[in-house]
Amino acid sequence: MNIGILENDEKIANQLKDIINSKYPHYQVSLWNKEEDLKAAIVEGGIYKILFVSLGKNPVELIDYTARLRDLQENMKLIYLADLEPAIYDAFRARPIYILSKEIDSGKVEDSLELALKELNQSKEKNFTVINKQGIFTIPYTKIYYVESDKRKLNIYGHDGLIKTINLKISDFLKYEHGNFFLQCHKSYAVNLMHISQLEKYDIILQNGMQLPISQSRYMDTRAGYLTYLENE
């Protein structure tokens, strides 16, 4: 995921970047200290899912620009940085999801990121529900990074590791109505496409740094499936 930060104070910009990278080390963070540099990056085709923007002393023009940018890139989430001045109230015309004080608080930065990520995934929010002899349980698809076949059992993994083991074959798991979430990349693994950070020749790197193998016979299908997912995201 690409994240952009427009902030002319280098110390603040690097504070933000460090907080983001400490929590999400595989996200790409771009820094600009001038509005012109941000605009140039956008003109060159830059797409940023989350954009931190420092409003400064004369915010109206920048608010207008980012509001237009948000209309063009509907899935982009804006997070403004501003001193607590009247400009803050005007800033909401561009519908930011959060406003941060320039006295950087790592907890609040993380809160703003979590909210932005939640909103990005809301349209994809759907649950995987299983009803069997073990009981009934539900896991949001946004929480599942991948599943692993273990004989006739299925291990379900999230950001922090194993979530649950259930009595289900991977072939039966893939028969569920998952939408466009899952793709089998290996006889023992199915990956949640929304959590892929990088796809290499025979490995998938997830957003939490975990690596999954891609079978040689499944590489082309995996690559094509992931490209289709990105095009429709």
Structural class: alpha/beta
Supply the CATH architecture of the largest domain.
3-Layer(aba) Sandwich
CATH topology of the largest domain: Rossmann fold
CATH superfamily of the largest domain: Response regulator
Work out the oligomeric state of the chains in this entry: single chain
Strand order of the largest sheet: 2-1-3-4-5
Can you tell me the CATH class of the largest domain? Alpha Beta
Q: Helical stretch count? A: 7
Shape label? elongated
Please give the domain count: 2
Number of strands: 15
Q: How far is the first residue's CA from the last residue's CA?
A: 12 Å
Q: Which regions have little confidence, pLDDT < 50, spanning 5+ residues?
A: none
Mean pLDDT: 86
Largest sheet: 5 strands, parallel
Question: How much helix, percentage-wise, in residues?
Answer: 25-40%
The percent range for strand residues is 25-35%
Return Rg in Å: 20 Å
| Element-by-element helix/strand order | EHEHEHEHEHEEEEEHEEEEEH
What would you note in describing this structure?
The protein has 233 residues and is an alpha/beta fold. The chain has two domains: 2-122, Rossmann fold (3-Layer(aba) Sandwich), CATH 3.40.50; 127-232, OB fold (Dihydrolipoamide Acetyltransferase, E2P). Helices cover 33% and strands 31% of the residues. The chain is built from seven helices and 15 strands. It has helices at 10-23, 35-43, 60-72, 87-91, 106-122, 170-173, 219-232, and strands spanning 2-6, 28-32, 50-54, 77-81, 98-100, 127-132, 135-140, 146-150, 153-158, 161-166, 182-186, 189-192, 196-199, 203-206, 211-213. The strands form four sheets. It has a five-stranded parallel sheet. Helix 1 crosses helix 5. The two termini are 12 Å apart. The model has no long low-confidence stretch (mean pLDDT 86).
